[in-house]
Amino acid sequence: MVTGCQPELSPGKALFRLPLDNIYTCGTTRMHNKITGQRIFYHRVMIETPGEETEVILAKCVLPGGFNQTSTSGSRSRRQSLPFDLIEPEHLNITEYIEARAPVPYLDVAIRQNGRVLDTTLNVQPGTPLEMLVFLDPKSRDTYGILTSYLKVTDSSSNQEEIIVMNGCSIDPYIFGNFETLDGGDTLSAKFRAFKFPESNYVLFVGTVNICIKECKGVPCGNDQYGYGRRKRAIPPQLPNDPNKVFEVELTTFLKVEYRDELFTLKKGSISGEFDTRHANQLPLKQAATIDGDPSFLLETSAAPNLQAQLSSALLVVAMVARRVL
């Protein structure tokens, strides 16, 4: 757990102090209602008890805002008289009165490996195929849709960062794939391979997600792609205006990526192989050209050596030696 985010424990009580000015410290989510101006901060606390199912508690803080901040209504002139053909009924028969209230949406983000959700206690090797999921809670799926408008990665000290999604479009699908949806925008998924910064084993994802009524408006991303992703060199200058946009959510998630000392170790008496893992499947951070004193960074991939071929060759040599001895 990150320093400063641990609870203060007492008999039968755990007190969390979550900063609202820096939500990224402890992974708090911030949601802004674009109509009312209301801001909601929430954090999921998981309670694990031996022999029982994991319990999830949603802690939230609501800050009210000015009502109807984005109202576009103009001035109206007073009508001097009613239209001559207006006929008002003497009796109104109201047969049905309908009142409904939309639920408050809550977002969650997860990183999966082969269908298994990862957390900060699990390590993955650089180059491991992973999938990021952003999804709505079950109560909100029938009402809203989502769109990932911005995503960046940074190290644990925030000294290095790289933007990977801008204005709803992936900057480089070879590093981080385009967000796709198969259920009308209730769940977004993007595939990528684990990468790390040279001086940190933790990668922090910081994203902004739009929540719209029913479904968010698609983003034209170029190269015959229109919707939730793009291909390289087609970043739109800005997101299109979406009249259905209601909420804007800022969320974070962590990923622990580090090298193991030994890639594989077989049982005693069998063959084992070693190679320098620091040159395999890593995404080193290289400083590119500096423009006006502002350095930019690029992520690059390098192919992994063929381990299966090395292992097969070693087995062949052992088999030949054994046959010659016999």
Q: Identify the overall geometry.
A: globular
Structural class: mainly beta
CATH top level of the domain at 106-256 is Mainly Beta
Helix content: under 10%
Cα-to-Cα separation, first versus last residue: 58 Å
Biggest sheet features: 8 strands, antiparallel
At CATH level 2, the architecture of the domain at 106-256 is Sandwich
Beta-strand fraction estimate: 35-45%
Domain ZP: 1-228
Protein name: ZP domain-containing protein
Organism: Ixodes scapularis (Black-legged tick)
InterPro entries: Celegans_DevNeuronal_Protein (IPR052774), ZP_dom (IPR001507)
Summarize the helices and strands and which ones pair or pack:
Elements: E1 8-10, E2 13-15, E3 29-33, E4 39-47, E5 55-63, E6 107-113, E7 116-117, E8 129-136, E9 144-154, E10 161-166, E11 169-170, E12 187-193, E13 202-213, E14 219-222, E15 225-227, E16 245-256, E17 285-291, E18 294-299, H1 307-325
Antiparallel strand pairs: 1-2, 3-4, 3-16, 4-5, 6-7, 6-8, 8-12, 9-10, 9-13, 10-11, 13-16, 14-15, 17-18
Structural overview:
It is globular, with a radius of gyration of 27 Å. An eight-stranded antiparallel sheet has the order 5-4-3-16-13-9-10-11, with no helix packed on it. The chain has a four-stranded antiparallel sheet with strand order 7-6-8-12, with no helix packed on it. Strands 1-2 form a two-stranded antiparallel ribbon. The chain has one helix at 307-325; strands spanning 8-10, 13-15, 29-33, 39-47, 55-63, 107-113, 116-117, 129-136, 144-154, 161-166, 169-170, 187-193, 202-213, 219-222, 225-227, 245-256, 285-291, 294-299. Helices cover 6% and strands 36% of the residues. Residues 68-73, 225-233 and 262-326 have low confidence and may be disordered. It is mainly beta. Among the domains are: 106-256, Immunoglobulin-like (Sandwich); 277-325, no CATH class. It comes from Ixodes scapularis (Black-legged tick). InterPro entries: Celegans_DevNeuronal_Protein (IPR052774), ZP_dom (IPR001507). This is ZP domain-containing protein.
